[in-house]
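Treating backbone geometry as a discrete language has practical consequences that deserve illustration. Part of our work consisted of pairing the sequence of a single chain with a tokenised description of its backbone. What the numbers capture is local backbone geometry rather than side-chain detail. For completeness, the protein is quoted in full, as a sequence line and a line of structure tokens:
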Amino acid sequence: MADVTLMTARRPLLPLLLLRMRNRSPGLGESLLGGAVAAGLGLGSLAVLVLGLWISSPYPDSGPGGALHIAAALWLLAHGVELARTDTLSGAPQPMGVTPLLLLALPVWLLYRAAREATDVSAEPDGPPPVPAGTAWTGVVLGYLMVGGAAALYCSGSELRPEWGWVTVCLPLVAASAAAAGVWSAYGCPSDPVLSLLLVLPEPVRRLLSGADARVRLGTAVRAAGAGTTVLFGGGALLLGASLVLHGEAARASFVQLTEGWTGRFAVLLLGAALIPNGAVWSASYALGPGFVLGAGHLVYPFASDPAPLLPPFPLLAAVPDAGAGTPLNWAAGLVPVAAGVTVAWFVARAAVARGGQAEGEGAEPGQPSMRWSAGRTAGVLVLAGLVCAVVFALLAGLSGGPLGVAALAGFGPVWWQSGGAAGLWIVVTGLPVVLVVRAWRMRSRGARGAIPGQGTESAREAAKEAEGETAKDAGQESAKDTRGTSGKAAKGASRKAAKDQAHPEPAVTATEPDEAELYDFLPADDPFASPWPDDLGAGRCAPADRPPLPEPSRPTDPTDGTHPTDTPHPPAEPPVPPDASDSPGTDTV
């Protein structure tokens, strides 16, 4: 019987497992599932595209397994993973590391959406609490990496196999950064995590963000850098399109030369579309000055063009400028970074001096601007925007290039540190004079009309202190004057009363000086929401008609003038202070 008691008193194993699952970190399972689904959607999209091309191809080289291997390899390539191509004429593996930036946008967007949904932030104020940021981020990243590792293992034995060193670096980096952006956006883009990351920056850069308005200046610099990068990217795309039009015949010939069937041409067209963002970044680097590399030791930049002699036929490579020295048409590409610098300067100047309703909200007079930053601080914000733009463009330049083989094909695309440094230098050099001129132009009405500077500046604080000091000084003088006058008037008031009444009889009350009794006419209006219930609250809010009439106030008079008040039976006990008689010479005024 004792054995039966021990067996029945022992807790079963299944409830223990359920209890552990219930006490786990909330949202971790959903986050893991979300990350796995995001990776599966990216893989599935490329698999459908590749299988469709394989089915429509009249002479496929392999079966459906080979098509799925290619889809998995392209998915890894979209994350920046370098691949090795084994089906070469020499038999030696050849690297392929040019990442199509349009393919990179797909996994980044899927990870961003998965991380936002994993936080489960409710729009209702009384909704359930969101999933902790660390839990959501960890779950999405782990779920994504599990599927990514399986895909890398699947295609490791195919003709396009990934390099495991790149897999261990690029895949976690893309997953972690995109998921962090999604979680940060779901929580309302707080600035504290961003400011905490700035501790790793050098001291001169951190000095640009010192002050109480560091968040505002950092936000302005990021927005201005985003606008400048967009102008650079858009200008590069415009240059690429213009070059394709000028080299249209060569581009069409290379397109026809690559393949003969419509399925192959459609595949080449899709590959060219995926590489258009890369071409835009290459063209922007060309406009900045460093240019890009077309083969080891062959540089293309505005002053000279030296492409490799044996380039593979491809429509985008046909748009490369002709070999030789640059012409004024090539030098005109320098207008793109100038436009980017002007754009960044305009954004910074708009934030430095507020106008319109925004300025009035900061304490400025109507129609006057509000100066937030001095000229030096405005220039510092522009320099910070140039640094951010340099970092972003260097990242884009590094992702847009890579090797396509060995020897002459070992280097393609811009050199990331040269392109990023040139972008920051162009922004600072062209933007500094523009931002100072635009700032002065936006402050022109303040200088012309003499408006008070806006809040947040040293001059405004000094003006406010001076105004407060003058007000306190005037108040102290008036108080001292009243005190001295009151002491003298109290002694002379009784002796001068009779003479003053005989010389200056009391004037009649005019319409501009209402009688004291008329002041009682300003009574509260009827309550439109009077309570009909006889409770304490309703009893306290009776209508004005229910109140008893107020007695008529009496005006005190002097008993020596022979007249007596009609509404009071007795004169006042002591004479009041005489009214002001400023027109009588030799008398003090109250």
Q: What stands out?
A: Residues 213-357+371-447 form one domain.
